[in-house]
Amino acid sequence: MFFNIISSTPKINNVGRINKLVAVAALLLSAVAHVHAAPGSGPGPGFDDDFDDEVKTWQELAVQLPPQPKPENMAEFYVGPTTTMKFAIDLDSISAGSDGVIRYTLISTSSGGAENVSYEGIRCQTAEKKLYAFGHKDGNWSRARLSKWQQISAVGANRQHAALFTDFLCQGGTIAGKVPVIQARFRNNQPIKPGS
Q: Looking at residues 91-118, what average pLDDT do you find?
């Protein structure tokens, strides 16, 4: 009889331990289920049930072509000592989109006086440029056939896009200020200073 009492005691203790472990596991599962069930119950405000580490795909905004530039709204900007053309921006055409693209009308004039008008965009985050349309003397636009994003290059004499990107439009991967600030930068011919 004494042997039976001793041999049954460990069984009771093991059952008690197992019951405690089951109870703790049930509490943990309940807490986890509660966190996942409560909307917005993440580590802080602004988190939702769909929060994950996936990068959202970038979406470009639809483009509206501006009016043709007027001479009084044009501001020339410096490209470099070896440039063979003159470049100006139509200040009224500058727009900063919520997609991180700054769009503008660029006027390029050759040394012989031939003028080319184009509506373009620069995506500051990726240092890319895109050509949307060409302007005609009758005031109309024709859409560019090859309208694709291309990397901006600082190589070559006519490095107008590199100058726009670095000196006037972008800083630290974002648009360098609101549109009035950018317009004033062109108007006053005050490029962004490195490190500012």
A: 96
Q: Which single residue is written with the structure tokens 């349309």? A: 133
- Count other Cβ atoms within 10 Å, centred on residue 135: 23
- Report residue 147 as tokens: 């309208």
Please name the residue that has the structure tokens 């949307």. 132
What share of the chain has pLDDT > 90, as a percent? 58
Residue 185's alpha-carbon distances to 15, 141, 154, 156, in angstroms, are 79, 27, 21, 24
Write the pLDDT tens digit of every residue in 128-155: 999 999 999 898 999 999 889 999 998 8
Confidence of residue 116 (pLDDT cuts 50, 70, 90): very high
d(Cα 98, Cα 75) in Å, to the nearest integer? 25
* Whole-angstrom distance, CA of residue 155 vs CA of residue 147: 21
Digit-coded pLDDT (tens) for 44-75: 455 444 545 566 788 999 999 999 999 999 99
40: left (phi over 0), alpha (psi -120 to 50) or beta: left
* 102: helix, strand or coil: strand
Rg (CA), the chain: 32
Query: How is residue 4 written in tokens?
Result: 């039976």
Residues contacting 101, CB < 8 A, separation 6+: 60, 61, 121, 122, 123, 124, 130
Tracing tokens 């769909």 back to the chain, one arrives at: 50
